[in-house]
Design brief:
six-stranded parallel beta sheet; seven-stranded mixed beta sheet; globular; binds zinc ion; single chain; alpha/beta
């Protein structure tokens, strides 16, 4: 969930507004977005959000933020097309102020002047930002790798970076994702050889799964399909949408008659078919997950079909992905995924160490701030910069919320942290989920739920029957004795309460909850969620 604010005097521009998909321990949370308290506190100063590219970790929070802070958004054509789609889904498009920019263009958002520099990455229309501020030039790389042979023929604009390096750059903020990889990241084109080999060798239909934003990869699949005499079917909502958008903008070349209509995929000659599907991370409702268990409307897959997972296995998703791959093997599918010794079927979109060094050498910044990575990656990126020796003044290792102030006389200081962090959202309602909800869900998952039920006469405060206790996921059968004594605890709590307390249900519920919690925690060292229920009699 990338986001960086640049402030000069009373003017703020925001670079990127991404979301994050939650880790497993955030139960039932759909998405996580950045805490924008700082921006809200200074809302009259926020002039614009400037986007580097269209990946979710850079644009995903826009629909959640614009509702509250409707500032102009700047981005390239494809990036804005993706943003537009998301705003449309939420009915926010009408009010949004979107401004399209092209690589090489310079815009002014006083007192800043921003040049968009074309960079290569795993999706299209990606830019770095060179921002002229009153105290010097700041360069933010966005996500990048230096691909010398990009699929769309649009090269990384090394010249522009060099030009700014010559002029003098105050600070460089650079992508740290792949700092643990030595050497160079292979070009997107590196996957062609292996994909073509697999397409040719495939005895039946071929299914390629990749990220729906990987327009380069999609282009290559379409091109290779053409070469080997196969046609292409497209399944999965995000895949269909992104292909439509990219094709509509002329950023995806699809020969006439190349696409197989969805309703024709099932009956199409398997030996002449390639299917592009989303769902590389085995997301539960994704096309590939459903295909793997033969539960997809448009196609079935089986003996001697080929499935190619052309994507990284994102850490945390391994279990789900390998379970899906197992299903495919059970159906006697030929499955290919990352990790083999053969030529790659996937390459990363982020720079490895040598590319980071080239960028540092070109830009020669006074100050360097590694961004986009876990702390260890920022740390190692700092070490790489140290080794290159291209940073003349200082390297700043900072965490979210830590401001750096650059002064007019060319110095830089850490300042007091500002509010930063994560906000958890249920995507359906767009509502923020508070920490307490997450804590309840965690208790539910780990220690179950205990529901004490008592019947109280509303007028007399008398307990009509003995308390019942229903539990789920808390104790097995041999917990009967504990529950019997838990009932005594409730009885005692009620007996020791005044009539006034007993007839005020929020009070008596809380007393029961507290006493029961203390007792159960002592007996079992568990902390189940306790939900007292009072029946009125
Ligand atoms: Zn990216
Ligand atoms: Zn990113």
């Amino acid at each position: 969930m990338n986001m960086l604010a640049l402030r000069s005097g009373d003017d703020i521009i925001v670079i990127d507004a991404g979301l994050m998909f939650p880790e497993q321990e955030l139960l039932g949370v759909d998405v996580v977005i950045p805490d924008i308290t700082y921006l809200k506190q200074n809302r009259h100063m926020v002039r614009a959000i400037v986007l580097t590219h269209g990946h979710e970790d850079h644009i995903g929070a826009i629909p959640y933020i614009l509702g509250d802070l409707n500032v102009p958004v700047y981005g390239t054509q494809f990036t804005l097309a993706l943003v537009r789609r998301r705003l449309e889904e939420r009915g926010l498009l009408e009010a949004a102020k979107l401004h399209e920019v092209t690589p090489g263009q310079i815009i002014r958002i006083e007192p800043f002047q921003i040049e968009f520099l074309h960079v290569t990455h795993s999706t299209i229309d990606c830019v770095a930002l060179a921002i002229r501020t009153p105290v010097g030039v700041i360069i933010h790389t966005g996500d990048f790798k230096i691909d010398p042979t990009p699929v769309d023929g649009k090269p990384f604009d090394l010249h522009a970076f060099a030009r700014y390096g010559q002029e003098g750059v105050l600070a460089l903020f650079s992508d740290s994702t792949n700092v643990e990889r030595p050497g160079f990241t292979p070009s997107e084109r590196a996957v062609v050889v292996r994909l073509e080999e697999l397409f040719r060798a495939a005895p039946q239909k071929v299914l390629v799964s990749c990220f729906s934003s990987s327009i380069h990869r999609i282009q290559q699949v379409i091109d290779i399909a053409g070469i080997v005499g196969r046609k292409v079917g497209i399944v999965g909502r995000s895949m269909v949408t992104n292909v439509e958008i990219a094709h509509g903008l002329g950023k995806l070349r699809i020969p006439d008659g190349m696409i197989v209509r969805p309703q024709d995929i099932r009956s199409f000659d398997a030996k002449r078919l390639v299917v592009l599907a989303s769902g590389t991370q085995a997301e539960p409702m994704s096309s590939l997950s459903r295909i793997a268990v033969d539960n997809h409307r448009l196609l079935s897959i089986g003996h001697n079909d080929t499935v190619i997972l052309s994507a990284r296995i994102i850490p945390g998703n391994e279990k789900a992905i390998f379970r899906m791959i197992d299903h495919l093997f059970r159906r006697e599918v030929l499955v290919y995924y990352e990790g083999g010794r053969a030529a790659p079927i996937h390459v990363s979109g982020h720079a490895s160490q040598e590319e980071m060094k080239i960028l540092l050498q070109l830009v020669k910044p006074k100050y360097f701030v590694p961004v986009h990575g876990e702390y260890r990656q920022l740390f190692r990126h700092a070490a790489v910069a140290e080794q290159v020796g291209a940073v003349s003044e200082q390297i700043f290792l900072v965490e979210s919320g830590q401001p750096i102030e650059f002064t007019a006389d060319g110095r830089a200081f850490r300042r007091e942290p500002v509010p930063a962090g994560r906000i958890m959202v249920d995507s359906g309602s767009l509502e923020e989920i508070e920490d307490v909800v997450i804590r309840d869900r965690r208790h539910l998952a780990e220690d179950g739920v205990v529901v004490p039920i008592i019947a109280i006469d509303k007028h007399t405060g008398r307990m009509e029957t003995g308390p019942e206790i229903v539990t789920r996921g808390f104790l097995s059968d041999d917990g009967n004795e504990i529950l019997a004594r838990a009932r005594d605890v409730i009885l005692r709590t009620v007996e020791q309460s005044s009539t006034e307390e007993k007839t005020d249900w929020s009070v008596i519920k809380e007393k029961i909850r507290v006493d029961l919690k203390r007792y159960l925690n002592k007996q079992t060292s568990k902390r189940p969620l306790i939900l007292p229920v009072i029946l009125e009699v």
